[in-house]
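Take just one protein record:
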Amino acid sequence: MRKILVLAAMAVLGVCSTSYAVVGLGVRAGMGSFGDGSSTSSFLFGAHADLTALPMIGAEISGTFWSKSEEVTVFGITTKTTTSIISVDGTAKYKFSIPGSPITPYLGAGPGLYFTKGKAEITNYPTVETSETKFGIHGAGGVDFKIATMPLSIGAQVKYAAIFSDPGTHLLSVVGLVTYNY
């Protein structure tokens, strides 16, 4: 497995050393939910690096953080729960060409790591904390809009991840992107 990863990395570096390689760094923000379908959404933000090695093939590495808190009081007992997630994932992208247009739609997929931390505080009881690292795969779709006179592009992306280590758990995010292209 390690040999395959090394060969894949060498192939990516070889393709990227061509004169077409474009690297972009950017930020992202939007809404996301993490759970079994009954979870509420919360604000998220993060950063990404985008690499386009060939006109229709690209890759993205992104890191995203979000947290949500809920507080419930029943019979004078208050329970406050906080869940924080940091996701780090890679996406291989296929970009659809629209000749003469600054708009580039794409589809992609890839693996991800999801670092979760949970905390529950209950009146008159000790605080309970948990943390886990979960693995999953995701699918993504989006669109980039290249600003003609600047090295900037803006875009939107929808990403859905299935978590292997916790069946039935998913991650769904909708974000806006701003990328500075080198």
Q: What stands out?
A: The chain has one helix and eight strands. The helical segments are 2-16. The chain has one domain: 29-181. The CA atoms of residues 160 and 172 lie 5 Å apart.
